[in-house]
Design goal:
65 residues; 0% strand
């Protein structure tokens, strides 16, 4: 598995994912806020399956995991 999520993209995914999860735990959002798990995991892992399907890469060329 090759990294396809880089730098700022990773930071934003982690921040948005954590924000959605915390807002859900504090009852500011309904249950759909748990979708924040998806950007959180893809940001931490550095790999996004949707990016692979679309051929998108936001990290430096040839960055292995």
């Amino acid at each position: 598995m090759v990294t396809n999520v880089g730098g700022i993209d990773r930071v934003l995914r982690i921040a948005i994912g954590l924000g959605l999860i915390v807002a859900t735990l504090l009852h500011y959002l309904p249950v759909w806020g748990w979708i924040g798990v998806v950007p959180l995991v893809t940001g931490v892992v550095g790999w996004c399956p949707a990016y692979t399907l679309l051929g998108v890469k936001t990290c430096k060329r040839g960055s292995p995991t």
